[in-house]
Amino acid sequence: MATLQVRNKSYRVLFCYRGKRYTFTLGAVSRKEAELAVAGVDRILLRIEQRLIAVPPATDIVEFVRHDGRPQEVPTPSTEPVTFRRFKDRYLETHRNGAMEANSLATAKMHLNHFELSLGERFPVAGLTLFDLQRHVTGRAKKKYRGRPLSPVTLRKEVNSFRAAWNWAALTGAVKGAFPAKGLVYPKADEKPPFMTIPEIERKVVTGTSDGSRSDMWDCLYLTRTDIEEFLAFVRGAAAHGWIYPMICFAAHTGARRSEILRVLVSDVDLDGKTVLIREKKRSRKQRTTRRVPLSPFLAGVLQDWIAVHPGRDYLFCQQAEVTRSKKRSRTTGHQSGEGRATSLAGRAATVRRREQTGVLPLTKDEAHDHFKRTLAGSRWQVVPGWHCLRHSFISACASQGIDQRLIDEWTGHSTEEQRRRYRHLYPTTQQQAIQAVFG
Q1: Same domain, 278 and 418
Q2: Roughly what angle, to the nearest 10 degrees, separates helices 365-376 and 225-238?
Q3: Which pLDDT tens digit goes with each residue over 386-413?
Q4: Domain range for residue 429?
Q5: What are the backbone angles phi and psi of residue 308, rounded to the nearest 5°?
Q6: Does residue 9 lie in a domain region?
Q7: What is the rounded distance in angstroms from the CA atom of residue 26 to the CA atom of residue 10?
Q8: How far is it, in rounded angstroms, from Cα 148 to Cα 215?
Q9: Among 157, 172, 187, where does a domain finish?
Q10: Alpha-carbon 420 to chain mean position
């Protein structure tokens, strides 16, 4: 039975439950209110004794009787939903520490930015649905790049970047469940043209062929062994800097990707063992992997000559700190350009300052691309689309000589059947010789 106490005009209720004594304060209320409270406690205790009500587990008995036998809900802290902007920023910041290759990180950022434009930066990412993804894909399919609609391959890459970020966020608890892309519908894709030699493409590029079709064909160019020899001979005479010729030879004779070539160290080259170590970042997301590629006698000689005059530092392909008329390596910086450029000589010179020299620096991907195109500009080789052309030219040369596919995979870092199928082609002359051997 509950009792009532008063101290300094403040009432307090006392009661026993399961042999223990409990109290709680009512405060400076009227006598009538205090007596009603005591009667309420007695009623609740009686109902508990008669097993008409039960005290929920882990419930405070004092709070239970004070609130007339109704357990109080523990308020849960309100959590603000994770917006797409926070989701994107956290993912990119986490992977900026080297867990992802710089090029891959930049691509992921670009893809997620596209989603942010279509979904909105305040979109609650945990509520993502298939409908949201479909709306993005359908909208992006109507966009054009260089005058042509975005390809389904590009759209799939965007969704895959989002999927990778989602799967990471699921591990952190920011989102729950599988990425809701099952059932996503993409536009139908056209298969890429097959890899072709220069004569094959020239026969197809006839009057009336659209610029887009011509570009697609030249993007599928590969060089034969004879082409590679003539191409490298031209580069040797046209190269403006010492690193250009050995780097292009390296690409043509190893099939390494541009990003892989830029990471090669001088110490990775074993001239005595005739091998070079390639540092990979695409084969595994969990660890940094490497592969060894044999050096052809020609490439070993080129690298030996290059290392003899190497400007120093660790990277095999690097550039002096100062290069005339270079945006990055010229002696001075701060030169004005564009509409806001000062009209007077003194005004233009006011912003120019001497650049701080940092010594020999490794090449960037933009520098490698720019000098590749500059070296070939105006020549018959300007149709070579870029560094990657030398990669599948290397693979084609190996395949035409009957090199075991397992060796080609090991040298180039191929790991999927889709990659092998894309590169599985032979020189036209090789194919002709094979069919003649059958039918004469």
Answers
A1: yes
A2: 100
A3: 999 999 899 988 888 888 888 988 999 8
A4: 222-335+352-436
A5: -65, -30
A6: yes
A7: 7
A8: 12
A9: 172
A10: 23
